[in-house]
Design a protein that fits this description.
Layout lengths: L1 H4 L21 E4 L2 E4 L1 H10 L3 H12 L7 E6 L8 E5 L2 E4 L2 E4 L9 H18 L8 H15 L18 H9 L5 E5 L1
Antiparallel strand pairs: 1-2, 3-7, 4-5, 5-6
Length: about 190
């Protein structure tokens, strides 16, 4: 996963050496303090390695992880663009839906929620253009490009609000994933 997709994985396991063979780093908690025991773990794994384990490791390295299907929005919110209100730094009202972003820790300002809500409205318009199929990742990347080139005013070009704080793509996607009315299809 790390080599093929650039995704790091962190496993928290108690008392099992099953992953010592493939680990880059092993940290042991000892009296509530972390201690790097990577060398010890690799020695333990090497001493218990069998031909079957070696063959399985070799096969795992050669087997591709697989492709990830992109999600193409087919419906964002029924009935067009709704009224959007940032209630707090944890809650966006998008029509009659509440988008709870309280667990998205990188959102630190209500103005980020205001920008996220208006960004979702823009994504809704972009996603539903006839004859154009773009994945959520492509749509969010296009919005980031617009932010880079035009600033946050691209969200409301008729009026210069000045009350937006720029969210990252991750926070936009996190809010979009929490929108219950979002319907997507898979695109490979």
């Amino acid at each position: 996963l790390s080599q093929q997709r650039g995704v790091s994985s962190l496993l928290v396991i108690g008392g099992s050496g099953d992953y010592f063979d493939v680990s880059d780093t092993v940290v042991m908690m000892e009296s509530f303090s972390p201690r790097d025991v990577t060398q010890d773990a690799h020695q333990i794994a090497h001493s218990f390695r069998t031909e079957a384990i070696a063959a399985a490791l070799q096969q795992a390295e050669q087997t591709p992880y697989g492709s990830v299907a992109g999600r193409v929005p087919s419906e964002v919110y029924p009935g067009g663009i709704p009224k959007i209100v940032a209630r707090s730094k944890a809650l966006i009202s998008y029509g009659d839906e509440e988008i709870d972003v309280g667990c998205v820790e990188q959102i630190v300002e209500k103005s980020q929620c205001r920008a996220i809500g208006d960004t979702i409205a823009h994504l809704q318009n972009m996603a539903l253009q006839p004859g154009v199929k773009r994945t959520v990742a492509q749509l969010v990347a296009e919005m980031e490009n617009a932010f880079d080139n035009q600033g946050m005013d691209c969200l409301n070009p008729e009026m210069k609000f000045g009350h937006y704080a720029r969210p990252r793509r991750f926070e936009i996607a996190a809010a979009l994933n929490r929108l219950r009315s979002l319907k997507t299809t898979h695109h490979r």
